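Case study.
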Amino acid sequence: AQRVTQPEKLLSVFKGAPVELKCNYSYSGSPELFWYVQYSRQRLQLLLRHISRESIKGFTADLNKGETSFHLKKPFAQEEDSAMYYCALSVNSGGYQKVTFGTGTKLQVIP
Amino acid sequence: ETGVTQSPTHLIKTRGQQVTLRCSSQSGHNTVSWYQQALGQGPQSIFQYYREEENGRGNFPPRFSGLQFPNYSSELNVNALELDDSALYLCASSSWTVTGELFFGEGSRLTVL
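After joint prediction, the assembly is written out as follows.
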């Protein structure tokens, strides 16, 4: 069974400081990993996916299969980055795209 | 392009009652999945529907059931409500061909007393 672990419930950083939101996963196959974000009073939305290897809003995430990690990073935090971040693992099982979410990390950027 | 809409936004039920939640998927999406999000937790997959059939299910009992209609809208039904069913229920639509990219509604918050 797959599992996603986000060890930090809350991460507080000052504006301009680097951010790293941790995510570890447990899955024996080839994972597809994602970061979802929920800003205040908005719906949950996709931030980025590992296969696209792109930077969204200055965030990047690299899949490290050796450490089974998919940490989300940004070199300089902005106040508008304050939100709830969820790491997610998608597994295709006979057509069923089961997406497993972590418990989430609340990022608080202090002005 | 219309996004995912859910109704009702809030509702209160008592233990043992039944509830139906509704979801309209984003245009062009043929897959709908339902998630339960308890307080302080991430969303947990209840089940997924594709072409009006349930094609996968998370660790939820049979009293959680659903339907998908020809226009890809969907319902989640929960029978014999229990106190632990109190949660935010999220509907997400996606394209069959794009794995893991989910478009969420704003959710229906269910309180069971």
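Observations recorded in class. Chain B touches chain A through 27 residues (CB under 8 Å). The first strand of chain B starts at residue 5 and ends at 7. We will return to this complex in the next lecture.
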